[in-house]
Amino acid sequence: MSWTQALSPRPFRSAAALAGAAALVLALASCSTPSDDSPSGSSGSGANFVEGTGAVTKVPVAERKKAPDISGETVDGGELSLSDYRGKVVVLNVWGSWCAPCRAEAKHLAKVSEDTEAQGVQFVGLNTRDMDTAQPRAFERTYGIEYPSLYDPYGKQMLKFPKNALPPQTIPTTLIIDREGRIAVRLLKEVGEEELRKALDPVIAEKA
Question: Which of 23, 61, 63, 81 is the most exposed place for a label (fewest CB within 10 A)?
Fold first, then answer.
């Protein structure tokens, strides 16, 4: 199956939707081939992906755009809406079990999530391009990920982010969303613990 087919399980009904899907295909296909050493022993469906550019974008409060209220089924079969966490600082991490940089950063995300929970921070994953939930569930067990992840195998949730609102453009991407539901920081890269804390702490310190 081609990635165009994978991202388009049924025909799009508008030019705008088609354009958005085409942009996502270009963003998610062509740079690097992931290894097959995922926790499940399978590379999932991630034949190619764009590695992070390394760009970190921090947005002044007055210029921030609302994040879309993505929602749906989680990797473990539950239900989740981003709006459930309004009033909290949300760290949204886009990942796949087949993605080597995602595996490298997972322990750092798990540690910062645990350390900042009492400060009103909620981590949320957005799992993409795993065609079965067995692989991401194994990933979470292996790396001690206890926060929930939306299951988004075809990238539909990613398409909901407007272009002018710092959408996730690579895998992995980490977005920090302030208490008002606005995107404050975007990291187009694998993140380490120290770097994530430096990006997150000023948003935590903001008054609600």
Answer: 63
Q: Which two tokens stand for residue 172?
A: 């992995």
User: Residue 25 in contact with residue 122, Cβ under 8 Å?
Assistant: no
Q: Report how far residue 49's alpha carbon sits from residue 29's, in angstroms, rounded to the nearest whole number.
A: 5
Question: DSSP characters for 139-167?
Answer: HHHHHT--S-EEEETTSTTGGGS-GGG--
Of 20-34, 86-100, 139-153, which gets the smallest average pLDDT? Answer: 20-34
- The residues pairing with 124 across neighbouring beta strands, listed in sequence order, are 92
C-beta separation of 84 from 69 below 8 A: no
- How far apart CA 174 and CA 187 sit, in angstroms, is 5
The whole-angstrom separation of Cα 150 and Cα 11 is 23
Kindly list the distances between the CA atom of residue 205 and the CA atoms of 47, 152, 178, 181, 191, in Å, as whole numbers in the listed order.
Answer: 40, 31, 10, 15, 20
pLDDT digits (tens, 9 = 90+) for 90-149: 999 999 999 999 999 999 999 999 999 999 999 999 999 999 999 999 999 999 999 999
**Would you say 38 and 137 are in contact if contact means Cβ atoms under 8 Å apart?**
no
> Cα angle vertex 125, ends 124, 129, to 5°?
160
